[in-house]
Write a structure and sequence with these properties.
CATH superfamily: Aldolase class I
Helix content: 25-40%
Distance between the termini: 21 Å
Bound molecules: flavin mononucleotide
CATH architecture: Alpha-Beta Barrel
Strand order of the largest sheet: 3-4-8-9-10-11-16-17
Structural class: alpha/beta
Shape: globular
Number of helices: 10
CATH class: Alpha Beta
């Protein structure tokens, strides 16, 4: 992924707060049509191209990328209370081939060649800030664009799984009241070690949260769960069966976790970080195939959103062929904001 244009982008040398405050102004660009009929969890939409939770820190980032060929915009994961971002580096480029999940100690590098370790820790503005921002963003976003909001529950020191579920549900309800067209619950974050970052590995707990969220948002709002890397059929089947009464879609894969080495020492105090970008595509496409097969076998109506390593039209095709209904792009869009325009041009050739 090289820098091909002058569109402003996230500055990885500045911290989260700086980037939050320095969203670019939406440019005036021509967006090629994407042929075909597309939907996002039942909502009609102009293309299969969206952005997942992460790069869109607030409404101004959403409005920027909405002009650049993305039809589904996911508001970065928010919480019921403010949370600071981890210190720099938040985005550390790494050297690696396609990941399987068994890798340890990926070497850090200065140059972004498609994959990086993401270290944010799911920061959030205060609810009154993000709720107002979502409301204003929905008003300003063209009506044919879909605004999805990602939420996460915050685990408390003495909290029970029920408390965590209530916290997820509260955030989801607030998101819908503010005008979100769809809600996503993040069940995977390799960068936090509490259970709110690992729920996708516990079907039972995930189902408690999903049921509570569904009750809070009502039957009509599309509800997606975002999950991490799953390779085995039995846990995947258990997850689908436990969650299917409550959800409309599953987004995968959040990232593939690994530790990162710089010289002789491990970064991030030796803790794992989610590797995002190009190196996760093979694993995520394989996971999409697995979930697609299990969902079809059970005759369920659950949409799949393919995420991980997409940067061109062929990658979009790989996900759609694997059974994804929609595709989302984070890293490549941060490095090259023109990526969706380029994919549209390639698709029309
Ligand atoms: C800067 C950045 C921040 C992210 N923050 C979140 C987040 O808050 N919630 C979430 O569910 N995923 C988050 N992710 C993961 C992305 O949604 C996505 O799953 C991942 O980056 C893989 O897609 P990609 O290969 O296109 O980057 C983040 C990713 C990046 C690059």
């Amino acid at each position: 992924m090289s820098r091909m244009n002058d569109f402003p982008r996230y500055n990885i040398n500045e911290d989260y707060r700086w980037n939050y405050e320095h969203a670019p102004e939406p440019p005036d660009v021509e967006v090629p049509d994407f042929p075909g009929e597309w939907s996002f969890c039942g909502l009609p939409v102009g293309s299969p191209l969206g952005m997942p939770a992460g790069p869109l820190l607030n409404g101004r980032w959403i409005l920027y990328y909405a002009t650049l060929g993305f039809d589904v915009l996911t508001y970065k994961t928010v919480r019921s209370q403010p949370r600071e971002c981890y210190p720099l580096p938040n985005l550390q480029p790494v050297i690696c081939d396609q990941l399987t999940g068994d890798e340890r100690e990926l070497p850090a590098t200065d140059e972004m060649n498609g994959s990086w370790a993401v270290s944010f820790g799911m920061p959030s503005a205060a609810p009154e800030v993000w709720r107002r921002d979502i409301e204003q963003t929905r008003d300003r976003l063209p009506k044919e664009k879909i605004l999805s909001v990602s939420v996460v529950g915050t685990e408390q020191p003495d909290g029970t799984p029920d408390d965590l579920a209530d916290d997820y549900a509260q955030c989801a309800k607030w998101a819908v009241e503010s005008g979100a067209d769809a809600v996503e619950t993040n069940f995977s974050c390799p960068n936090v070690c509490t259970s709110d970052g690992q729920l996708y590995q516990s079907s039972q707990q995930a189902a408690i949260v999903a049921e509570r969220v569904r009750d809070a948002i009502g039957e009509e709002v599309p509800y997606i769960v975002k999950i991490g890397h799953v390779t085995e059929e039995i846990p995947a089947a258990m997850f689908i069966e436990s969650l299917c009464p409550f959800i409309n879609g599953i987004a995968m894969t959040n990232s593939v976790a690994a530790t990162v080495k710089q010289g002789d020492s491990l970064l991030f105090d030796g803790a794992q970080r989610g590797i995002c970008g190009d190196a996760t595509r093979t694993a995520s496409v394989k996971q999409t195939e697995l979930f697609s097969r299990l969902i079809a076998h059970r005759g369920l109506n659950i949409a799949l959103i393919g995420v991980g390593g997409v940067s061109n039209a062929d990658h979009v095709r790989q996900y759609l062929n694997a059974g994804a209904d929609h595709v989302q792009i984070a890293s490549a869009a941060m490095v090259d904001p023109e990526v969706a325009l380029q994919i549209r041009r390639e698709w029309n050739l």
